[in-house]
């Protein structure tokens, strides 16, 4: 079994403690990785702090070239990275609607190159006879990146590239469920980066607490659950660290009356079930007008029954397993609660036979707000479909949730959809799509879905501090 090392100061680091990594398609370990303790984590932070001085002094164009090189090494090692992603996450190579390991690796390279081309020019706020005011963007220092298990390479890229481009150095800690691809990517990146600029460690909660409280960490960027985000915010508060928190979502999708379901439902299905529903901005609650409710339920259930679920390494697999046993237990609990609360399971609703953490794609009817499956994020292949009677009612239902990451409106009439979109209390609204993030569009949540944004120029700015320089001319000497 191959053991993957940590990366500190440009060198692979083996530690006495190793942790096995489970392939969720088999329930068995396929690799292991070294584990950091607090002492090793201190070394990584120290290396990043030492590298910051020289890295931050490079020109923006020099850092752009380095970030492009990271994108290039991801591209050059795409087959290996795809294999690792498939083994540690369970997602197929291709996947439902092409959302699989190939998309994750290709998307990571694309994102790296796009972000690398962003500029941070000095902004001139005033330039007249009374003076000149310039706004400069300056790097923060060492950034701690803490990433989740659902998109381990893509989200690592989202965190790392803008941080480096802005002149920061990074210590990244991937999820203990999926550390392998991230460790390998950082190893590859260190073949082109100066030592200490990008470091990768693993570890338990004590290591995580060190990253979020250490005085040499200037910013924490975290993607994951809302409860963990609250703990990070509390830990970071003592030193007033900058934070970007992309937390849980329970996104609502609204189908307006009269929408062509033959066209909408296949697209909606992909937005709900890609990556087995294990995406923060997947569509997780579908609201359909009562006049089309039964047709929507029938259509979504019929589609779910056709999906091939299996090992992601097998050709033709559309959905893999739930990534870990703990998440599978949450899915099972929510479906059981739905049945107790009067929900009707139209398809699925059970684990599939065999090894691994497989669960059948599940569609549930007959529930509304107040039911656990509607109110709580399942983060699995389960969709509740809820009937509504008026637009006023459905906006109230969609917004009646602590989460506020994304939402969507589905309609033939784009003007009607646009009029409704602005009434949704969430960070991003899609019309006739859902969860389609892109590198030029800021992305972040409201309410309990986090704070700050990622992507594009706005996301890059969050990796910097502002410095205003106000220039006033001296009065001329008296003659």
Automatic annotation (TrEMBL):
Q: Which residues are responsible for catalysis?
A: 246
Write down the superkingdom of origin: Bacteria
PROSITE patterns, alphabetically? ALDEHYDE_DEHYDR_CYS (PS00070), ALDEHYDE_DEHYDR_GLU (PS00687)
Gene3D superfamilies associated with the record:
Aldehyde Dehydrogenase, Chain A, domain 1 (3.40.605.10), Aldehyde Dehydrogenase, Chain A, domain 2 (3.40.309.10)
Q: Sorted alphabetically, which keywords does the UniProt record give?
A: Oxidoreductase
Q: Which InterPro entries match?
A: Ald_DH/histidinol_DH, Ald_DH_C, Ald_DH_CS_CYS, Ald_DH_CS_GLU, Ald_DH_N, Aldehyde_DH_dom, LUC3-like
- CDD domains hit by this protein: ALDH_AldA-AAD23400 (cd07106)
Q: Which Pfam families match?
A: Aldedh
- Residues that span the membrane, as ranges: none
Aldehyde dehydrogenase domain ranges (all copies): 17-469
Gene Ontology molecular function: oxidoreductase activity, acting on the aldehyde or oxo group of donors, NAD or NADP as acceptor
Q: What is this protein called?
A: Aldehyde dehydrogenase family protein
Organism, per UniProt?
Answer: Halioxenophilus aromaticivorans
Q: What is the lineage of its organism?
A: Bacteria, Pseudomonadati, Pseudomonadota, Gammaproteobacteria, Alteromonadales
